[in-house]
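User: Quick sanity check before I run a bigger batch. Here is a single chain. Can you write out its predicted 3D structure?
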Amino acid sequence: MPAINLSVCMTLWAITLWRAPGAFRNKEKRALWGAFFVLAVEMCFANIPATLWLDRTTGVHSFAALLKHASAVSAAACVLAFLSRTAASSNPSARPSQLRSGAVIPLATLVAMVTLFSSAGRPDEAIDPLTAFPRDPWLLAYTLTWTTYFGWAMFTASRLSWQWSRRPGPDSLRRGLQLICLGTGIGIVYTVHRASMLLLGRLGFHPLSAETEQVLNGLLALVPLLLVSAGSTMPMVPMVVRAARHQRSLVRLYPLWAHLSDAVPQVRYGPKRHPVADVLDLRGIRDRLYRRTIEIRDAILVLNGAATVPMRLRAADHVEDAGLTGRAATAAAEACWLRASREAHVAGHARTGRLEAPAHSGSDLDTETAFLLSLSDAYFSDLAATFARAYLARLTAPAGATP
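Assistant: Done. Predicted structure follows.
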């Protein structure tokens, strides 16, 4: 369990930090972010050594237990508030009083919990005060108070998430809501189990040992947490995948962009950055990729004027001799004359040709990026390098040589 608790704690903090910028920009996301933050803080004290340290530091017996249960109530309230606000945003008939009650009830529950916990007799330190002092009526009332609210919140969250998962929408959203529904459903099982063990214990029946019940309670508390975390994160997976793909394309296009813009620096919108700094910058990935494709196209347009018709014909013959056909041959031929034009432009031996329309271009960012990536592969190939060297050699040959 300590290893599992540590893994869950690290996961929760990673999700909390990842969601923080969006939560501060959009108030609709703050409730769900609050749930992750509360649970991440609580999981820091999930292990027994951390629990005992917290109780000794505060000087309050079983204070960690109160923190754990209060965190469960607060996180459940945040999840419920998030789902309720999402449902209300598309339901004009939702009354503000219904939304405000979602904050009043958990606050009243927390106040009642603190009052009952303070009134209970806790003469000694205990990880689970109810197990250590099963006859204390205040602890029994305290436990029933927080489990009742937690069970009600899980039931309501299950109902809302199930209803929303059946509506039309992206697959990732519907599957995420189904995972949330499964997690909150297991939360209901946890509540029923906890209440039944309390009732049987008051009647003198103990079907499970204390160690078994502790492990079972831990699993029934952790599994819903993981499912709700996964379900709430799943709708963002397509965006993360798309951003990762754009970032990869941005990095792969850097050599072509740098090589061309070094020859025609006027196409750059801003100063050239080091490749490492470019890779580590995760801001505005899509906009930067869009800008990079534009600057590459601008550089190609400038160098297009230095690509004479004889050069283009030689490039086509060079590619054909290499055995390339179809779209690969088109990209390779363009890469050959583009690299040759670039080297001639840098060497100051460029000849003026006529502008030609692009051999191929994308209709959107993804198709344009795909073509430029294939162009980049061909541009840095031995085929294009050989053609550029041969062409530059012709330009710098002594007078009277065949151009």
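Residues 399-403 have pLDDT under 50 and may be disordered.

User: Great, the batch can go ahead then.
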